């Protein structure tokens, strides 16, 4: 299954996020994921593993497991590179060993002090607060993104972690409209208004953290995952599926793209097998009632400032 983006290209509705995948394990994980059937991979300069992902992709192409045109590869512009969009994109392409990206996203709607292409540590001032560059507007950044499309380096461009107001502004100043807004959304953080706004204006919503972060966000942010919710466990028993599969299926039935992350082979398989059943309207309504407006991914922990405030 795929969603046709505003740009005309098709984006597989289930992808694999590579956040916190490290070292030599990445190659085996990605090769196995491709063999399972994954064709959509979500990367970012900030994940600091584009070179390892590129090595895995090169092997997949060379051995004939898959062709480049069969894959949908996303990566993201880091905050400190808003004034250097072209150079940052070329750096990601070089590391990923690709001639073009299927999708390039503005990772966060904030420009910070430039620390050098390829460096993505948070730019903090002496006070421990994010060193935001107030001379670079998001409109300037977006026109840099549009230039990448003109140059043929990127097929589709989009935004990430933008709210309704920032998304509306992007629609107003853009010549090439954003194809995607990638946001945190899951049963505990449904963001119905933002999802509806984006979809009404032809912007595909991709759900990062679609399972509520699980162990990774508990470790990093101390947050609670919806995977332990009793109502969702009940639905898993009803459909003879795992809780994760029920949550991902809910995301798909909202017409959002889901990009769960897993480093375990059995979970890769499990997360991909979500297209052979359908939740009833009653069960979709039940999950809708679980919304807590609860964000689990909170970068303020590292930045000394809450950008969502």
TrEMBL record:
Domain of life: Eukaryota
Keywords carried by this UniProt record: NADP, Oxidoreductase
PROSITE patterns assigned to the protein according to its UniProt record, in alphabetical order: ALDOKETO_REDUCTASE_1, ALDOKETO_REDUCTASE_2, ALDOKETO_REDUCTASE_3
NADP-dependent oxidoreductase domain span: 15-291
Entry annotated with the keyword Oxidoreductase: yes
Keyword match Transmembrane helix: no
Family (UniProt): Belongs to the aldo/keto reductase family.
Protein name: NADP-dependent oxidoreductase domain-containing protein
């Amino acid at each position: 299954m795929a969603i046709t983006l505003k740009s005309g290209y098709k984006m597989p509705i289930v992808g694999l996020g590579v956040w916190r995948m490290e070292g030599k394990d990445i190659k085996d994980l990605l090769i196995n994921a491709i063999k399972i059937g994954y064709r959509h991979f979500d990367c970012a300069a900030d994940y600091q593993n584009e070179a390892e992902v590129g090595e895995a992709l090169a092997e997949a192409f060379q051995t004939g497991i898959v062709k480049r045109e069969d894959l949908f590869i996303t990566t993201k512009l880091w905050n400190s590179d808003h004034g250097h969009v072209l150079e940052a994109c070329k750096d990601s392409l070089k590391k990923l060993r690709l001639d073009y990206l299927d999708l390039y996203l503005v990772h966060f709607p904030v420009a910070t002090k430039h620390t050098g292409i390829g460096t993505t540590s948070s730019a903090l001032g002496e006070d421990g607060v994010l060193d935001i560059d107030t001379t670079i507007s998001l409109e300037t950044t977006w026109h840099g993104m549009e230039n990448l499309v003109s140059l043929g380096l990127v097929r589709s461009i989009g935004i990430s972690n933008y709210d309704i107001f920032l998304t509306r502004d992007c629609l107003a100043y853009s010549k090439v409209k954003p194809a995607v807004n990638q946001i945190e959304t899951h049963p505990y953080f449904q963001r119905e208004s933002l999802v509806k706004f984006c979809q009404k204006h032809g912007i595909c919503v991709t759900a990062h953290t679609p399972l509520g972060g699980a162990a990774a966000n508990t470790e990093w942010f101390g947050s609670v995952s919806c995977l332990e919710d009793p109502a969702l466990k009940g639905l898993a028993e009803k459909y003879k599926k795992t809780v994760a599969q029920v949550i991902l299926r809910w995301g798909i039935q909202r017409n959002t793209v889901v990009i769960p992350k897993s480093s375990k082979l059995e979970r890769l398989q499990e997360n991909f097998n979500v297209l052979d059943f359908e939740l009833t309207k009653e069960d979709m309504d039940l999950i809708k009632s679980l919304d807590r407006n609860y964000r689990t991914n909170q970068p303020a922990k590292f930045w000394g400032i809450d950008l969502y405030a």
